[in-house]
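ok new one. same drill as before - structure tokens go in, u give me an amino acid for every spot. 186 of them this time. try not to just spam alanines like last time pls lmao
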């Protein structure tokens, strides 16, 4: 079965036989490319994290990284990348599911559910008791998915921005156009 082949002769969607397994080094490029389609397409407006090669690599190499893929006869059709966060002065370990994606033609087959459960169960074995996710407020599909997985209590978080270049220019004008020197740097 390939991604071209998810319907039977009567047009019904056939559930593909997917293997959920840990990500391997050979999967890095495929995961990155799938993420490019999923996350670049939606132009995720979150600045503090954006989809790039490092995101995939980091989940793979870091000690407390968690990386799973959905494999259909060698084709990567989904992935879940996460990590465990520990806080100073807290005995708690927090799981963070950073990226979860399924190829569009394979969505609604329960693949993300399986990826999520695999990661959650491993995190649980590793001492995690709370798992966090974040997503844009208008990503309705993802919000429905996470609600279905049992996530609740959404907290609103606002991002504010300051154009520091403008600020610097204003300061320079105020100081008579003199360039501001700090620590010997221009
Ligand atoms: C969110 C996403 C990962 C879900 O993947 P999926 O494999 O289709 O999810 P599942 O099939 O396991 O869905 C489980 C349940 O979640 C809910 N759900 C999932 N996608 C949904 C959608 N588009 N609309 C409404 N509910 C949805 C449903 O309750 C579904 O159960 P059902 O199909 O029996 O009704 C997928 O839509 C995706 O890759 N989106 C783009 C990337 C993204 O936004 N990722 C999340 C933030 S990192």
């Amino acid at each position: 079965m390939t991604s071209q082949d998810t319907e039977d002769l009567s047009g019904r969607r056939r559930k593909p036989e997917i293997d959920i397994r840990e990500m391997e080094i050979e999967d890095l490029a495929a995961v990155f490319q799938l993420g490019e389609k999923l996350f670049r397409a939606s132009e995720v407006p979150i600045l503090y994290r954006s989809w790039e090669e490092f995101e995939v690599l980091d989940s793979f190499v870091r000690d407390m990284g968690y990386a799973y893929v959905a494999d259909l006869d060698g084709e990567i059709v989904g992935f879940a990348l996460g990590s465990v966060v520990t806080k100073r002065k807290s005995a708690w370990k927090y799981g963070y599911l950073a990226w979860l994606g399924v190829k569009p033609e394979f969505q609604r087959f329960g693949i993300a559910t399986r990826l999520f459960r695999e990661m959650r169960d491993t995190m649980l074995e590793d001492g995690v008791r709370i798992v966090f996710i974040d997503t844009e407020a208008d990503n309705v599909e993802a919000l429905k998915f996470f609600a279905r997985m049992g996530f609740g209590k959404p907290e609103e978080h606002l991002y504010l921005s300051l154009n520091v270049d403008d600020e610097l220019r204003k300061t320079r004008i105020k100081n008579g156009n003199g360039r501001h020197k700090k620590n010997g740097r221009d």
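The pocket of coenzyme A is lined by residues 38, 99-102, 107-113, 135, 139, 141-142, 144-145, 148 (CB under 6 Å). and btw Strands lie at 19-22, 65-72, 75-86, 93-102, 130-133.
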